[in-house]
Amino acid sequence: MSIEIENVTKQFNGFTALNDVSLTIPSGELVALLGPSGCGKTTLLRIIAGLESPDGGQILFNGENTTDRHVRERKVGFVFQHYALFRQMTVFDNVAFGLTVRPRSVRPSKGEIRDRVMGLLKLVQLDFLADRYPAQLSGGQRQRIALARALAVEPRVLLLDEPFGALDAQVRAELRRWLRRLHDEIHVTSVFVTHDQEEALEVADRIVVMNRGRVEQAGTPDQVYDQPANPFVLNFLGNVNLFHGRLQHGGIEPDSRNTVSYVRSHDIEIERTPQDSTALRAEVKHIQKLGPSVRVTLAVAGSGEFIEAELTRDTFQNIGLQQGESVYVRPRQVRTFVEDYQI
Amino acid sequence: MSSTTENHTARHNGIRTVGEPAIVRWLLTAVAMAFLALFLALPLAAVFSQAFEKGWQTYLAALKEPDTLAAVKLTLLTAAVAVPFNLAFGVVASWAIAKFSFPGKNLLITLIDLPFSVSPVISGLIYVLIFGRQGWLGPWLEAHDLKIIFAVPGIILATVFVTFPFIARELIPLMESQGKDEEEAAIVLGASGLQTFFRVTLPNIRWGIIYGVILCNARAMGEFGAVSVVSGHIRGMTNTVPLQVEILYNEYNYTAAFAVASLLALLALVTLVVKSVAEWNVRRQMKSQERG
Amino acid sequence: MGPMRVMKILKCTKSVLPGFGPTMGYTLLYLSLVVLIPLSALLLKAAGLSWGEFLGAVAAPRVLASYRVTFGAALAAAGINAVFGVLVAWVLVRYPFPGKRLVDALVDLPFALPTAVAGITLATVYSANGWVGRHLEPHGIKVAFTPLGIVVAMTFIGLPFVVRTVQPVIEELDAEIEEAAACLGASRWQTFRRVLFPLLAPSVLTGFALAFARGVGEYGSIIFIAGNMPMVSEITPLIIITKLEQYDYAGATAVATVMLVASFVMLLVINMLQKWSRRYAE
Asked: CATH number, domain at C71?
C-alpha cells in the first residue's frame, strides 16, 4: 500500500517539528527517514501511524484520506524504539495481543491465533521463547518479538522507530541484514527512522533525508549518495571536505557569489608529482590508521585550509607517506554549490 | 536522540492522540476532586470554621487558658526530646544500613518499620506493662519514688516509639540511591570518618533529614492513642495538646476544642508545605544521582 | 549475637568506609530498647496467661463483635480507597488542571493532621446538623455515631496510602506501552484492563493492605465519630483502653496480642506483595 504525505505541518510549543512536508512512499518499498536529532523524522513517523495528529496537511493510504482515522483503525504495525513489550505477558501473549483484543465477531479462533503466533515466532526465529517474559530476553530478541507483535495484526504499513538504536554494534549489523531479508520475504510497505547513514544506505530501497522539519531529498540510496541535492545531504552522507571558493589552477579561488566546493574524503588522491593542473600542494600533518582505511590530514599550502583524505591501506603503503612531507592532492570529484543552489 | 526529545515535548503537551477523550478526562477529574473535597478539604475547612464560630475574642481566650498553655508546653517538650533522639538514630542507622552490606539487612529494615504497623494503643500499652504499677519495673520504680507512667517520661517514651521509624525510613533509601562513591573518594583523599560524614554525606542528605524531621515532628506533636494510654489525663500536668482537645470536646466546649485543634491543623498545613518542598528537592537529588 | 558472628559480619562488609561497628551497635541497641524489648514485654505477659484466661478475654462476645466492626470497617474503607485512590492518583499524574500541586500536597493531609483533630472534625461534619450530615439525614443515612462513621474515619486516614503507593507506578508507566496497545487495535478500556491494570494491580493491592492495616490499628480519629456502642460500633483498640482503665491488664494484653499478631501477618503480606510487584522488573 502506498502512503502519501501532503503538506504536513506540526508544531510543539512553538517549535516547528515538521514544516510543510510532502512525500510519497510507493507500495511495497522499504523506506528510511534519515536525519540528525530533532529533524522531525520521528514526528513524521508518529503522524503516519496516527499517534500524533498533524496541525495541517493530510495523510493518504492508497489514495484514501486517513488523517482523522484513529490509530486503532489505521492497521499500522509500529515497532517502538524501546520495544514497548507488555512485561506482564509472555512472549506468546504479547504477539497474540492484537488478535485477542478484536471484537468477538472478527476475532480468530484460539487455534488460529495459536497457529498465526507460532508462525510469526518461527519467522523471527524465536519460537522457542514463546513462554518467556520480556525481562528474560536479550535486546535483539526483544526487538524481534516487537516486530512479530506488530506483524501479527497483518498491518498495511510497518513503521519502525529507530529499530536498532538501543542495540550494540554487532547485534545491530546482524538485525539490519535480517530486516532486509524479512522485507524481501513479506513485502509490506515499511518506513523506518534512523540517524545512521550507513544503516539507511544498507537497508533501504529509498532514503528520505530530513533536516529541520523539511525533506531535503528523497531518492534511492545511489541517487542521494551520488547526486546529493544540496550541501546538507552531501554532508550528512559521508565525510566531506569543504573549500570556500572554486578549486582551479592548483589553488582555491574565492569568488563573489560565495561558492563552496565539496570533496568527499575518499575522492581525494595523493601523489608525489602533480598529474594535472587541478592538483593542490599540501603538507601531511597527521596520519591515523582506522582498520582497513587510513585517514590523512593535510594542510593546503598557502590557504590555511585542512583536507581529510581517506585512503585504503594498500594505496597508503604504495605511496609510503610520511608525516611532514610535501605532496600533491587531487580531487577526483568536486561538487560546487553557490549558497544553497547547485550549479 | 531526536525521538526522545520529541516524545517528551509531545507528552507534556497532553495532546497525545492515544489518551482518553476529553469528556472522560473531565469526568474523572471531577469525580476525583469531589471525593477529595468531601474527605479532605471539607473537614480541614470545618476545623477553622468551628474555631472562629464565636469570633476572635473567644478564639484567643480559649488559647490563653492556663491548661491549654500547659498542654502546649508539654507537647513542645515532648517533640523537643523525641525528635532529636530519633534523628540521631535515623542518621546512624541509615549509615550502617545504606553504606555497608551485611546479612539480615532486610529483616533489620522491617524491624525498624515495626512501630508503623503497631496500633497506637498497643504502643502505649507496652510501656504500661513495663513501667506501670503492675508492670515489670513497677515495684522498683515505686520504691525509688520514680514515676514514668501517668507522668511526662511515659509520654515521651510512647512518642519516641510511635515516631521511631520516620527519619530512618526516609534516609535509608536516599543514602542507598547515592551509593558510596563519594564517601570512598573522600577516604582515599585522606578524610577521617567524621570529616567524610559531615562534609560529604550530610550535605547530600540534608533535604531527606528535613523531610524526615518534619514528619516525625508532626506525629510527635499530634500523637493521640499511645499518649492517651500512658498520660493519665491530669489537667495542666500530663495533657498534651491532642489530649486537651479531647477533654474540651468531651466537655461539650466545642469552640475551645476546635480553637486548640486549629493550632494542630495549622501545624499540619505547615508540615505539608515543608514536606512538599523537601520532597521536591529529594526527588530532584535522586534523579540527578541516577543520571550521574 | 556472639562475638564470632559479629566478627564474621564485620569481615563480610569489606568496605573502606569506617564506622560500621559503632553505628550498627548503636542501631541494634536503640532498636532493642525502644521497640523490641517493649514489644516482647507484651508477648511475654501474654505467654504468662493461662489458656482459659486468654481465650476468655479474646473470645468474649463483646470483643468478637469489636473484631467484626474493626476488620469489617477497615476492609470497607480500604476498598473505597482502592477505587478512589487509584482514580485520584491517575488524575494527578495524567490530567493537567489548575491547582494540581496544591491538591497533590493536600492528599497527605491525613498523614499530617493529628488523629484527634480529624476525629472531632469528622464527627462534627457528619453529625445530623453538620455540613455533610444535614444533607444525608433527610435520606435516612446516619453516619456519625454508627459503624458507617467508622468507615468514614478509616477512609480519611487510609487515603494517602493508596494514592502514594499507586502514583509513582503510574508515573513510571511507559507511554510507548499504551501506544503499542493502540496500534494493535486495543480500545482505551481494553488497554487499561489488559495492559495497564495488571501493571498497577500489585501497587493497588499493596496500598489496599497498607490502608487496611492502618485502619485496623487506628484509634484517635475513630472514637469521636464511632459512638462507641458495645456490640455495634466499638472498635478493638477501644476495648484495650477500656480494659486498661479497669486495671484488667491481663485482658488488655490478651486482646492486644491478637491485634499485634494480626498486624504482623499483614506486614508479612505487604512485604510479599511488594516483592511480587517487582517480578516483571528487568
From this structure: 1.10.3720.10
